Amino acid sequence: MAIDRLDGRLIVLLAREPRIGVLEASRRLGVARGTVQARLDRLQSNGVIRGFGPAVDPAALGYPVTAFATLEIKQGQGADVRAHLAGVPEVLELHTTTGHGDMLCRLVARSNADLQRVIDRVVGFDGIVRASTAIVMENPVPLRIIPLVEQAAEDND
Amino acid sequence: MAIDRLDGRLIVLLAREPRIGVLEASRRLGVARGTVQARLDRLQSNGVIRGFGPAVDPAALGYPVTAFATLEIKQGQGADVRAHLAGVPEVLELHTTTGHGDMLCRLVARSNADLQRVIDRVVGFDGIVRASTAIVMENPVPLRIIPLVEQAAEDND
DNA sequence: AATCTGCTGGTCAATCTGTACAGCGGATCG
DNA sequence: CGATCCGCTGTACAGATTGACCAGCAGATT
């Protein structure tokens, strides 16, 4: 669970250059190949590394518009709303939260006009009382993990 | 840019089982290995697939609390605020948006108490006028891309 | 009809993977 | 203090995969 500096360096290295294999990683880190293999196995069974899936860019797929929608849900309808939203491909992510809204979801669309269609589909469901949408203009910090990994590696060192 | 069914199947296959190589993928898809290689190359230079970095779980790293903060920014301070937030490891993602707030960021923390520290650090900056935070309780739909890829593959087929 | 493009099925050498082993140093424990 | 455990090193091996080619072929384009 707690990662040490070597784990941190390994993760950062893999994040920066995913194509290098275990052997090359061991060379870069200055440790034996078996060590890297053991660390990787451990990190994966720990769940620290969930996998190495391809990072797909929705924009390149033809969905350049991103938005966040805050949804207010009718009491007791949570499960139904979740199931409904899970069925919409443009819903990339859904959270239930504290605070003003009850749920927060990330949407993508083919254009601003298309976003209207997506929102209609998202909110056109009985359990949803109200929705407010914020369209993303810029993304100054894309989803990242390296700084956190470095932080965690130093804390647990 | 537009992906066809084979691209879609390839991406989905890789997303589901990242460890399989080009050879195994070609077997599963029933095409020649060279074809898979060519498709992969194309998808990567298109930017559809940005890479194969490790998917790190912040919770397993010791950061089980996630929150979204909506920030209101003083006019003209955007760039400074961005730089400030980019320097906070617990800020995993930052967007500028339309709507009530001006920015939306995703935070993680070691605990609810620790979240206070993170928020203080985030909002303790001159350009930030107001912040409202929503703590994530559940994550019914974790960040996903497969349904969108399938959608895109069928549209452009 | 000539061209292009993308896919096929095959080859090659080079590399990497998974697995195993013995040795070694540091830390833990009775 | 000595025994033991654990993680890392360095090495070995067979088997699989990779990247790079190639000629042939079918469908679409010009």
TrEMBL record, chains A, B:
SMART domains: HTH_ASNC
Any one GO BP annotation for this protein: response to amino acid
The HTH asnC-type domain, residue ranges: 3-64
PROSITE patterns the record matches: HTH_ASNC_2
InterPro entries hit by this protein: AsnC-type_HTH_dom, Dimeric_a/b-barrel, Tscrpt_reg_AsnC-like, Tscrpt_reg_AsnC/Lrp_C, WH-like_DNA-bd_sf, WH_DNA-bd_sf
An annotated Gene Ontology molecular function: sequence-specific DNA binding
Name of the protein: Transcriptional regulator, AsnC family
The species this protein was found in: Streptomyces atratus
Origin organism lineage: Bacteria, Bacillati, Actinomycetota, Actinomycetes, Kitasatosporales
